[in-house]
Amino acid sequence: MSLPMVVRDPELPERVTIYEVGPRDGLQNESEVVPLPVKAELVNRLVAAGLPVVEATSFVHPRWVPQLADAAELVALLSDGEAMHHPVLVPNDRGLDRALEAGCTHVAIFASATETFAAKNLNSTVEEQMAMFAPVVARARGAGVDVRAYVSMCFGDPWEGAVDPDVVVRVGRDLLDLGASQLSLGDTIGVATTGQVSDLVARFDAAGVGVDRLAMHFHDTYGQALANTHAALRTGVTTFDASVGGLGGCPYAKSATGNLATEDLVWMLTGLGIEHGVDLDALVATSTWLAPLLGKSPASAVVRARAGELDLS
Ligand code: HMG
Ligand code: MG
After folding, report:
1. Residue 299 placed within a domain
2. Is the pLDDT of residue 270 over 90?
3. What are phi and psi of 201, to 5 degrees?
């Protein structure tokens, strides 16, 4: 099928990078532990669909996220015998040790802009998290490993409500100063609105952090993730996190639902004539393959439209 029709908007970037987080953000939130071969096939299918970056798993404490306790085994399945280039989450030195032992070449740290989420997700304060990340970034870079940094709760927090955007900018700048190569700004519970998105990007710019250092990580709780993506595109951001079928959430963030679905993002970008390199049909096929294995229909409207309602019986 050749839809959607394409009308290019010259105000928007010509090309974007889609950073797929389904195997990590998606599967960390499933009630059942997904079998290892399914995880490996999911990553391989996403790569085959043309996704340039696929975040594979997390080296967090296995008691905190049992769904991803098999991180080392997964990396072994995905590695070429020496290295594994898909990014993985690491919260601390122990996580980095495990990732380096497994041969990972790209890691991501994840900070919180709010005290409550820092406590619930990392058992730390906003200040303590920086002390935890500093040696991780230094050691990773010393080993030639790239470090991405997330900031969670950038647009609203389920316990604290409104989040001060200047605090988000301060936390983000601190992470870049540690040596992170890119900041992914997380709307962890999916409450952001478009004006907040452009305002936050402008504040980062005023603080000396250009759009080339930023990525956006939208969850879709209030159905605003695509609108927020469009607002970010208008500011010139060119990296967007998304999750196949709209899987995702955070076990430590009350009310977090799935990420922006990769298929929905691909549909919009294609319609805008923005290059992304991803095969929509291969993605939809991946979501329809995965759905019965997870026992639920994909949240993505584009998957439902393209594949029809799935019979999960
Ligand atoms: P803690 O309990 O404070 O850890 O947890 P600790 O440093 O006190 O250590 C306690 C024990 O755990 C020690 O073992 C450590 O070795 C061990 P013992 O000496 O008692 O035998 N340990 C580990 N073992 C394996 N791997 C590790 C590790 N670290 C310590 N990495 C900790 C602190 C940070 C570890 C914990 O809070 C944790 O694992 N949190 C992760 C939570 C998580 O994964 N959340 C989801 C990802 S974030 C997200 O989804 C948001 C995002 O998508 C963006 C957005 O949407 O906004 C990224
Ligand atoms: Mg997330």
Report:
1. yes
2. yes
3. -60, -40
The CA-atom distances, in angstroms, between 18 and each of 45, 279, 297 are: 15, 12, 23
Q: Is 225 in the pocket of ligand 1 (CB under 6 A)?
A: no
Residue 1 lies in a domain: no
pTM of the model: 0.97
Residue 263 falls within a domain, yes or no? yes
Domain span at 196: 17-312
Q: At 152, which CATH number?
A: 3.20.20.70
Q: Give per-residue pLDDT as tens, 10-63.
A: 999 999 999 999 999 999 999 989 999 999 999 999 999 999 999 999 999 999
- Cα torsion through 107, 113, 114, 120, rounded to 10: -10
- Rounded to whole angstroms, the Cα distance separating 143 from 90 reads 15
Query: Angle 24-125-199 (CA atoms, 0-180°, nearest 5)?
Result: 70
Q: Where are the beta strands (DSSP E) in 173-271?
A: 182-187, 214-218, 239-242
The pLDDT assigned to 255 comes to 77
**64 found inside a domain:** yes
Q: Is the CB of 150 under 6 A from ligand 1?
A: yes
Is 250 noted as a catalytic residue in this protein? yes
Total tally of structural domains belonging to the chain: 1
* CA atoms of 109 and 98, how far apart (whole Å): 14
Task: Give the pair of three-digit tokens for residue 84.
Answer: 């594994």
Atom of ligand 1 nearest to the CA of 250: 50
Question: Which ligand approaches the C-alpha of residue 55 most closely?
Answer: 1
- 């316990």: which residue's tokens? 159
Q: Do 148 and 186 meet the contact criterion of CB atoms below 8 Å apart?
A: no
